[in-house]
Amino acid sequence: MTTATTGSASVLTRLSTVLAPLAGLVLVLVLAAVTTPQMYTPDVVRIVLFQVGIIGIAALGQTLVLLTGGIDLSISGAMAMTSVVLAVTTGGSDGRLVAGVLLSLAAGLAVGLLNGGLVVLRGVPPFVATFASLVLVQGVVIAWTGGAPSGRIPAGLSWLGQGRVLGQVPVPVVVFALLALAALVVLERTTAGRRVYATGFNPDAARLSGVRPGLVVVGCYVASSLLGVVAGMVNASYIGYVDAALVRSLNLDSIAAAVIGGVALTGGRGRVGNTLLGTVMLAVLLTWLIQLGAGAGARLVVSGAVIVLAVFMQGRPVRIPRITAREKDTT
Amino acid sequence: MTSVAAPRGSRAPRLAAFSGLVRRGGAVWVIVLALVLALTFARGTGFWNSGNIAAVLAGAAVLGLVALGQHVVVLGGGIDLSVGSMVTLTSLLTAVLVDGYPIRTVPVIVAMVVLGAAMGLLNGSLVSVARLPPFIVTLGMLYLVSGVALTVSATPAGRVTAALTDFSRATLGPVPAPFLVLVAAVAAVWLLLARTPWGRHLYAVGGDQHAARAAGVRVRPVLLGAYVTSGVLAGLAGVLLAARSAIGSPTAGSGLELSAITAVVIGGTSLLGGRGSLLGTVGGVALLALITNAITLLQLPSTWTDLVRGLIIIAAVAVFVVRRPR
Amino acid sequence: MPETALGARGVTKSFPGVRALDDVTLACAPGRVHALLGENGAGKSTLVRILTGDESPDAGTVVVADRETRLGAPREALGLGIVPVYQELTVLPEMSVLDNVLLGQERSRRGLLDRGAQRELARAALARVSLEDLPLGTRTGELSLANQQLVEIARAIARRSSVLILDEPSAVLSGDKLQALHDVVRAIAAEGTAVVYITHLLEEVPALADDLTVLRDGKVVSSGPATDYTTDRIVREMVGRQVDQVFPDPAPPAGEVVLRVSDLVPVGSSAPPAHLEVRAGEIVGLAGLVGAGRSRFLRTLAGARGRSQGGVDVGGRRVRGSLTGAIAAGVALVPEERKRDGLVLDLTAAQNITLTDLRQVSSAGLVRTARENAAFDEERERLGIKASGPGQPTRQLSGGNQQKIAIAKWLRVSPRVLLLDEPTRGVDIGAKSEIYRIVRELAASGMAIVIASSELAEVIGLAHRVLVFRDGAVVGEVHRDPDSAERIMHLALGTAS
Amino acid sequence: GCSTEQEGSSSSSGSSAAEDCINADEAQAEYTASWTSVKEAFGLTDFEPVDETVCQVDGEQWKAEPKQGDSYRIAFAAQGPTNSWGVLSDEALKYHAKELGVDVLYAAANGDATTQVDNIQQLTSQDPDAMVVVPMGDGISGQVKAAVDQDIPVVLCSGLLPDSSGAVSTVTRQYDLLGSAYAEWIAEKLGGKGKVAILSGLAGVPTAEYQKAAAEKTFAKYPDIKIVTTQYTQWSPTVAKTVAQNLIASYPDLDAIWSDSGYGALGVVQAYQEAGKAVPPITGDSINEFIQATEGTDVQYALSTFPPEMSSTCLDTALDLLKGEPVLDKVYVDSPSFTDADGAQYARDDCDGGLLVPSSAPEDLLVDLKMCKAS
Ligand SMILES: Nc1ncnc2c1ncn2[C@@H]1O[C@H](COP(=O)(O)OP(=O)(O)OP(=O)(O)O)[C@@H](O)[C@H]1O
Ligand SMILES: Nc1ncnc2c1ncn2[C@@H]1O[C@H](COP(=O)(O)OP(=O)(O)OP(=O)(O)O)[C@@H](O)[C@H]1O
Ligand SMILES: [Mg+2]
Ligand SMILES: [Mg+2]
After folding, report:
1. How far apart are CA B126 and CA A312, in angstroms?
2. Domains, chain C, ranges and CATH?
3. pLDDT grade for C187, boundaries at 50, 70 and 90
4. What is the pLDDT of residue A122?
5. Is ligand 1 within 6 A of the CB of residue C292?
């Protein structure tokens, strides 16, 4: 009898540890279902999936950086830069697509190296380092294009943003799934992933164990920028033109997705699953808000409230700090 | 990053003196000084005429107040992304509520400060009582408060009184009145940080929450105080902004949060909390105000402004930021 | 005056997987020093946290001044005069000494800090721990670990206390500073305060304690007046068996010179260049007072900090002055601050062990869990690590077992030179003797070992010869003989004739 | 000053202003003409201009010699090169200034009203002869007033401010005109009955909100037209496309889309084409890309422009003031409007997709800015 109770109790606790992080997502899904019945039609689901793809790709890069205890505000800069580089270097012709892609990746590499270099070599706080490089990237793009970037993205790339797999699933979400799988394997299974976590948790101990935290951190910033470039390519090929409106915007979606999912800003804590969760939640939220058709004000209020509520519901143990728990909490 | 205290590998003495300067927030002033010298050299009369000085100082007032609040929150180990939206809401409400009635001016100003405090209290409660990460809490508040502002009015609305506009344009010598408000706020925050138990506790909580708690510090009220301070200063900034614009706008303060954080960090304050100097933050504000001024004074090509801004910020942080404790 | 200033009644506390305290009852009388002893992980610190309201017990109650009391936070305990100095440092490195001493007990007038009163109070408290010369404005992070610990003790002393709890205060102290600590503890007890004193240095017990309690596996196994206990008995109670405390003579080193240090000057040091040769199988001890430069020397050897001059050769080949260079050459350092530098506490035991050489347990960049677990089992076997399994977070292990992991991770790379910095700090006596055994065995297997320790008996007992450091310089070399202890102390203090 | 009265409420009856007004019939006619031309272009039956009194300003009052040197220095508080409109607005003025031999003191707001407040204060402190301001929002009114109070004539360009700003003249195309003309066209297309979606630009930004308000006012006249949803596109085709995909999913039977921008319209057209559905009648400003993308399709649209080149007219107005010549207090710029019936002719294959067509900017400037290829 006793064993039976304890047994079911432990199943319950185990269940709750699995379900707790999902609570926020469930909340959003239920809210969406109740208020907008059309939310679960195939068309809308496809839009959500597309959003998952486009937010998720950048969020993966962001996750890597967050795991090292950093943050990358320059991702949206890398995205905007990509569409400009693609358009300008190819002039819209498929023939030069490869060159355009390579150049975009090179530019992304440069941004990543700049971020990583500032953080590692100069010890600049990541928040400011990447914000400064965002301003710089925007500045370079504006100076280069005279402020009005424009041009065509080669049609040969349009499958990336507009295509569907099996006639239904948007290509971006497939790309995201593949990249997420790769990130999952890298983080959980490879030596590189182990080094990322070790560096994020304790760079000093990692360094003294022969890990080179500098290289790890730079690597993560580079990966983040390169994923930003991929996200930028998806975005550019989605619309097919350079979208000047995106050049100046600071897009916090990738950070929000990772952090809402439970990746800590202090480094080391977080998995690809967290990011996936946060990404889906954000994608549902953004689509739901459009479907809701509420005014701009109400929409912002709802998204702000839902983000805080969802994180609150994620069943973070309301724990009072202990002297033993020396690690700084996310607070 | 663990914060257990231990001597680190000692630096070369030359660097140590320099890092002392950085620590006390003096370093950013080196760049400010260099920029002032460069501007004097390039545009002597244009820069030093009282109108331009007034323009620089007045431009610094709103950002300065917001950065001051940010400074306090960051010292406590947090971050406040919602300051820009709080400025937006309070400035919009100032104009909408005053709406040209002189009798309403004072009550509305008081109400805005209270509103700022209330929003700060909400931030602070979510962070310290519900123990949610400040980044998420204040990001959510950023959306929420901007949404409220847009709901109040989607178009520019309301009108402040002549007294308020006059105040925003009044000067004492070359010093604009809004700047004097900033000076007073700096003095008040300095007093709070350097001369009250709460100030000590804030440094302690920012440096190591667990250690502070072990020493008997009440963490919650300290954090609440920090966010409330930030909210109050944002409320004041909102009133100043409304006075300057004479009218309320639902987007007035957008983007201020990033400028404020940048100013704080350029000034040598650690985003990890527990270390920072007010002098540095004020220097950071001065630097950002001067960059804007310099770009116009030097008549740089408009397409180069962001490039220049980015380069100066990178130069400032790369050269002058204290290395992260290892 | 109450009979029991502070006590516990039937206190039980469990963490996932461990019962840290099991029905613990304890009573500390006013005016007496009560030593709390036990192996690593016996539950001493957990008990302290419960007694100070930092943690709440699963069952049982805390007794304050003869009354059962519920404590919600350290602040409440402080309000009742229960003042703790926790095992981990809680000074804030970025704050000044003054602010650290007065943290949580600032004196203010009309809301503003009363700076005169503050200074006076801090001065008085610092004077009691022999830090009267310390400028109050110094940034605490700039102080040596020992002085930081004293600042923390000064903070506790500055409070009016009926109970003072010191959790391993002596771990980072030596010489005069340790003496000053003992003096102040006695003085405070004489004033009527109950003192709870936790230590792994058993020679402190007869010198300080009036009563003692021994914990083993979360249970009180013995309690009574200190005079009833000999060191042997204490050890027996703690470990539950006899521990071999004598250091047999080490086997003479047979091998050729493995490590050769010539003209070495660490960056930032103004001391004269250091020389050292260590043979395979040889153990060289480094002695000196706290801050004498031993750690700096070891860190420089390991490439963890730069050298401004000189060179290090291993097996006749010059070693590059970087961490990776040193590791590649077979030099491994087990650093003194285990929790900060030695381990990634949030990774599992197995993950920490394999961090130094991930290639061993991976193929094509993929970590093979089976191989990783095998590596863990191997080290568990070799060092006698007690952990629930390879997947246990290192944070949850007891201090001694953490230290074994910190050593084990370096054994994975089969180093030729092993540098151990304070390998037994904060480690209980049972684990200590195991670590001694391990060090001996490693030397016997042909490793060259350099070991820095503040415990004189340990250096002398383990090493073939001892280098003595003072003010960053090697001031002498002492070989194993009956009065080496005295000679080392004289050299370290600069009183050698 | 603790009055319970609302300030300025008694004096703003407009009677005093009306007395001063030298009614320029010619100008009034020009204003009406700008409405009639749209009416004709869109084939509207019922489209009357909103009431507006245009007066002549006495230029004598502002007549002045150059304060420094022998050429005028005109301060230009510009939007900044945040998009192709901003670039052309900035550059057209500078180009014209060069033609006239006038110095320009330039400051970019990068689309932000708060920045512009600082800019205007700073420009004022440099004591220019006159100032041209592309207003980023009503929030700059106070600072404009301060400039005028310092005897610097201010000409507002491509935007409006409340009368309290004291600006001497306003040179612009009317937002009301565009917003209501698009709405009226849709209403006629639908025969006064149907479901309409509104796609506005940026929430809270006056240029977007005023046009939207005008549209809503117009639609309100038709009880059978239902505005099913209002969305914001941030003037980004990417955002607009996502929004449009959502519209297709939730309102499959949408009859028309009112959009305030060509960028928004571009995204909408793509979304519908990809979904294999007919694009509902749509409006927006006429960017090259949109016309090219709809060429050869049966997409029905009504386009007009808010020409950036009007900034050169703004400069002329400022200089007229300085020369003491009479100017109008409101100069309403006209520009081509057209529908899908004759849209194709405006496409310019030699020019960039972002160009607002037809452009009256000098050809060599367009080439210089790499917006068009040299022919
Ligand atoms: N970050 C630092 N800043 C200034 N001085 C430092 C720093 N780190 C170490 N020192 C100084 O360098 C010297 C050597 O320190 P080290 O830690 O090597 O001493 P030690 O003999 O190993 O002492 P311990 O017994 O604590 O290990 C000391 O005088 C110490 O005060
Ligand atoms: N927060 C915690 N979570 C899980 N287990 C814990 C926690 N704190 C302590 N423990 C476990 O409780 C037991 C007692 O630990 P405690 O720190 O009290 O030992 P101790 O006697 O102070 O040892 P040491 O001499 O090493 O300081 C150990 O097994 C430890 O791993
Ligand atoms: Mg302990
Ligand atoms: Mg040492």
Report:
1. 9
2. 6-239 (3.40.50.300), 257-493 (3.40.50.300)
3. very high
4. 84
5. yes
Phi (first) and psi of residue D192, to 5 degrees: 75, 20
What is the domain extent for residue A264? 2-330
The CA distance from C86 to C426, in Å, is 13
B293/D125 Cα distance (integer angstroms): 11
Q: Does residue C399's CB lie within 6 angstroms of at least one atom of ligand 2?
A: yes
Q: What is the DSSP letter of C341?
A: I
On chain A, the residues whose CB falls within 8 A of the CB of D250 are 36, 38, 44, 291, 293
Contact C342 A190 (CB under 8 A): no
Q: Environment class of residue C450 by beta-carbon count within 10 Å: exposed (0-12), middle (13-18) or buried (19+)?
A: buried
The pLDDT value given to residue D1: 54
**Contacting B residues, span 96-135, partner chain D, CB-CB under 8 Å:** 99-103, 105
CATH of the domain at A6: 1.10.3470
Most confidently modeled range among B62-71, C297-306, D85-94, D246-255: B62-71
| Cβ-Cβ contacts under 8 Å for C252 (sequence gap 6 or more) | C464
Distance of alpha carbon A191 from the chain centroid: 23
CB C290 within 8 A of CB C144: yes
Burial class (CB in 10 A: 0-12, 13-18, 19+), A18: exposed
Is any Cβ of chain A less than 8 angstroms from the Cβ of B300? no
Using CB atoms, which chains have 3+ pairs under 8 A with A? B, C, D
Instruction: From A60, A27, A38, select the one nearest A287 (Cα to Cα).
Output: A38
Separation of A328 CA from ligand 3 center, angstroms? 20
B220 touches chain C (CB under 8 A): no
Cα C127 from chain centre: 25
Q: Strand, coil or helix: what is A33?
A: helix
- Alpha helix ranges (H) inside chain D: 15-20, 25-42, 84-100, 113-125, 141-149, 175-189, 206-220, 237-250, 262-274, 288-294, 310-322, 363-368
- Type of residue at C216: R
Mean residue pLDDT of chain C comes to 89
CA dihedral in degrees (A165, A170, A171, A177; nearest 10)?
A: -100
B266-306, pLDDT tens digit by residue? Answer: 888 888 888 888 999 999 999 999 988 888 888 888 788 88
**Cα distances (Å, whole numbers) of residue C191 to A243, C15, C31:** 77, 37, 7
The pLDDT tens digits for B302-319 are 788 888 888 888 887 777
A129-185: pLDDT as tens digits:
898 899 899 889 888 888 777 788 898 888 998 888 888 899 999 999 999 999 999
Interface residue B44 vs chain D (CB under 8 A): no
**Torsion-angle region of residue A217: left (phi > 0), alpha (psi -120 to 50) or beta?**
alpha
- Can you tell me the mean pLDDT for C392-398? 86
pLDDT score of A18? 63
Mean pLDDT of chain A: 85
Could you give the strand order of the β-sheet that contains C317-318, starting from the edge strand earlier in sequence? C274-279, C257-266, C307-314, C317-318
For residue C255, the cross-strand partners are none
With CA atoms as reference, report the closest residue to D216 among D188, D180, D186: D180
How many domains are contained in chain A?
A: 1
| Nearest by Cα to C229 from C213, C217, C250 | C213
What is the spatial distance between Cα C106 and Cα C85, in angstroms, rounded to a whole number? 18
Residue C155: which H helix or E strand, with range? helix C145-158
Predicted TM-score of the model (pTM): 0.89
CB proximity B325 to C under 8 Å: yes
Evaluate if residue A1 carries a pLDDT over 50: no
ipTM reported for the complex, 2 dp = 0.88
Residue D185, pLDDT above cutoff 90: yes
pLDDT, position B325: 43
**Cβ neighbours around D40 below 10 Å, total:** 11
